[in-house]
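pasting for the record
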Amino acid sequence: MGIGDRVSTGLKGFDQVIDHLRLGDNVVWQVDSVEDYKRLVEPYAIQAGLDGRRLVYIRFGRHQPLLEESGQVKVYHIDSGKGFEGFATEVHKLIKKEGKKVFYVFDCLTDLLKYWYSDLMIGNFFKVTCPYLYELDTVAYFAIRRNCHTYSTVAGIRETTQLLLDLYQVNSKYYIHPLKVWQRYSPTMFFPHLIDGQEAVGITASTEAAGLFSSINRGEDRLDYWDIIFSRAKGVLDKSPREKDAQKKLLMHMLIGNESTRMFQLCHKYFNLRDILQIASREVGTGFIGGKSVGMLIARKILEKDAKELFDTYLEPHDSYYIGSDVFYTYIVQNGWWRLRTRQKTEEGYFSLAAELKDKLLHGKFPKNIQEQFQQMLEYFGQSPVIVRSSSLLEDNFGNAFAGKYESVFCVNQGTPDERYEAFEEAIRKVYASTMNEDALAYRRDRGLAECDEQMAVLVQRVSGDQYDENFFPHVAGVGNSSNLYVWDKSIDMEAGMLRLVFGLGTRAVDRTEGDYPRIVCLDNPLRLPPINAEDMPKFSQQGVDVLSLKDNLLEEKRLEEIISGELKTDRELFASPDFKTAERLRQLGYTSEKVPYLLDYRKLFTQTQFAAVMRDILALLSRIYDYPVDIEYTANFTRDGGFKVNLLQCRPLQTRGLGKPVELPEVKPETCLFRGKGGFMGGNVRLNIDYVILVKAQEYLALNEQGKYSVARLIGRLNRELKGKHVMLMGPGRWGSTTPSLGVPVHFTELSNMSVLCEVSHSQAGLMPELSYGSHFFQDLVETGIFYAALIDGSGDTVFNSHKLLSLENRLKEIEPQAAALSEVVHVAGTNTTEIFSDIVTQTLICTI
């Protein structure tokens, strides 16, 4: 290295001790006070000015300024209260803007504890910032206060930095003790040195060195600042209400988030200090526990506190764990991917770099201390199956549900301890990697959240259920909504709420499972059936059961008959009745079997237990306290005497536009009616002009091969982009978004997200049937995006669909998407500003005129 690369500290004697600074050096001072640090910053800044260097001061601490703005010193004020990611990203951007060979002074890093509460995150900030400064040939001064950080934090800083130096003040004299000086050495370099003006006098005599160090408090290894705060909080449990409230608020800031949010206010009202400490005791790592965990915990607390023991008999306890959001950042930082994440968060890298980052997130290593905590958690659960669920900062909050956007992974938890541990780690990686899913990225971008701090915490729950032979599952599971926005009969009480109910694991309730139809339960009258002919009920009901196979150690689909005929440890007729009509039809067709098939009708469940009433009361209470419709996930398990326990797994605000003002319906004339029906729509009272109608013709679609059907789906996605900003109604056979092309067009939700109306049209001859998907993730997307939904079911006396009126209009597909000409016989795009759709909730009337 040439003489021109050598840099002065401003203390000539000390320059000689360490053979000067070098371009690229990060210099960390361990000090007893900020005032001591300032004594070293000042000569460094003066020397930089004399040498004509650009000096930047990064100001974020609460302490007094180290330097004042001047012609030679540029000051950047950065808000560290915005959190680790926002702070680190802003520092990265300004370093990039300032360029090469700039000199830096940072405020004391220990001050970041007041905002981040975690030593771990200070170490992470240093690890992502210093290598970038080194690459740009800068020289940067940092400080940490002695005995304020854990050994592991200091060790991480020592490993990353080029120089680590102790500064002591003893009897009004200052001593510098180099601990690490990278790529330089002299016989006296690592002795302490007395600083006397510009001179540095080495303390080489053993007597002097021993006398100096014996007077210095070296401290003992400390707890992370996070643990110190929670330990202090335990000490005020028997103090005054005001002291407890202040501590509770502080801990909630650390675990739950921003005080200004409605969810924070709910938590503040219902949780006491002991509750918050109990939550913290079950956290792995540090940081927020995330929206899904908060929603589950506050809902349970509301039921416990406001129901006056009404639900005590019915609620299953939980023993969940929470992997803090700081673990997510630490995983990224310590695997060396922070720069890639920073690039991915830019406009140009948002989608283009997501796949690369996703792949890396699936193959990283966790820090040793986190691995040990994972191990202890798994030892606690033993061989009970667990589910590893995303719990990001923005999930399940007012305004954004993120329903189904991130992963949930079952760990059946069978095998040797090593095998079970590896499967658990793999599950965490899958949840982390799901932050880079295209649907999740598009969801965040479409809601203006692409720049938001979206850390991923994780909720680890014991799977609710029991072992039945070699399978594990709950008796029933599903989702519930306090407001029934999808009604098909004017007698339905919308405020009674509804359930989407399945037998076995609830995965079949949150997804649109092919060939399967969960039971839709109106809680004002649970026996009411959706608008399907009675003879079609076996066809349009649940056919398979999702279970955890303890033998194969994975999530499996089993035939309903296989599971329902086995030992259930309760009365199977709570859920299913013998289907004698189907048995008779099979005999007539020549099938001989002594077994009578079962049909999941849940008749005894609704007539001989309090299950429906309890679920209605739970939803009503939660909705009243939230002052907002709510969406829950639940399981229920039954005993031989008909008793049951409900496990409340999740609760979030149900994003809904409301019913809207009553609409005056037009007189329906045959010559102007495109379609009409009774019920079968969702989206409230509307009167909406339609600019374009896109119709996928059923027969022509079904005649395509599988590749052709996927081509139709991709075409819909292109039309979705081209017609953005227009009022478009999308009509097609069967289920939109199906993963089985023979049951409907297999679009992703992002490929229809700009539509104003989505219409599913049945085709009974081909077995295509809209699914009343109310309560599924698909439904959540429709509601949040404000898309009006309608189902047209042929064979219903109230339904009319005059598709020929639409097909008589010019097909403008080639004009809008010229490359799609080959599909013009399948996809018809009619441009018309004379089409209007009307709906009225009270009369359950749906009309579309053209």
